[in-house]
Each structure stands twice: as structure tokens, then as C-alpha cells.
Amino acid sequence: MLRVFRGAMLALAMTTAAALTACAAGSSEPTTSRLGGSWVGDFNDYDFQLSLTERNGAVTGNGKYIVGTNARTVNVTGTASPTAGSIFDDGGEQDFSLILSGDGVPTTTIKGTTSRANVGGAVVEVLASFVSNAQIGSDVYVVFVRP
Length: 147
Fold this sequence. Notes:
By secondary structure, the chain is an alpha+beta fold. The chain has two domains: about 30 residues; about 110 residues, Lipocalin, CATH 2.40.128. Strands 1-2-3-4-5-6-7-8 form an eight-stranded antiparallel beta sheet, with no helix packed on it. The radius of gyration is 20 Å and the shape is globular. The N and C termini lie far apart (about 45 Å).
């Protein structure tokens, strides 16, 4: 029993030491992201299904741009940064700017802020955003939600 305990303590000590060494070497912890994960949004006949990853301000991902029944694959790139003067105690809001591109898809920009909304008494995460492209128009307001 003592051997198992010592092994667990050694593993914990090694993990802690490695983390402290990494911090001392100048690396930083990844920032908390509310932007990462799956999102869906729609405007009239236009639907978006996005899967995003955000790490230290760089956003990448992929998804679908759907017009009626025609679905096209898109790649997503962009940036995210903490919202100045976040209204949430955890400072969890992020401003973001995304570019969607793909074969047969007009270059699409999505700019906005991660936020939370009360929907039927439940607090849900949302992307309050403005979408622009040659088909939809300029700065069309679209709210993305978790699927």
C-alpha cells in the first residue's frame, strides 16, 4: 500500500515540476476559450455549422455553409481576444473575427462577441455576430448557439 502511495506522490511531484519548469521557461498556459467547440447559426435559407478551436487568440476550424439543401465544406481561420470590460465575473467574453472559405462558397466574414443569454430560464452560450458575404449581404446579424 505504501509503495502505491509513494508512486502516486512521485507522479504528482513530477507533473508539478514539469509544469513549473515550463512556466519558468517562458511558456504560458492556454487561455480559456468560450469560442471553441461546435456552433450553429442561420439566416433565412443560409445555415452555418462550425467546429472551432481557439488557442491563445488563434482560431481554426471547419464546418458547413448550407444554402437550402446545398451544403459546402468550409475552412475557418481567425482571431479571438478577451472583450474589454467584460460584464461577466469570469471575464469570459471574447471578441472574434472569422473568415470562412471553401470551394463554391463566397468568402464570408463573421465578427462578434461570445456571450450568454437567458433562454426559457436557462443560461446558454451564444455568438452574437455580424455575417457578411456576396450572397447574404453586409453585416447581417446572426446568433450562433451550441447544437
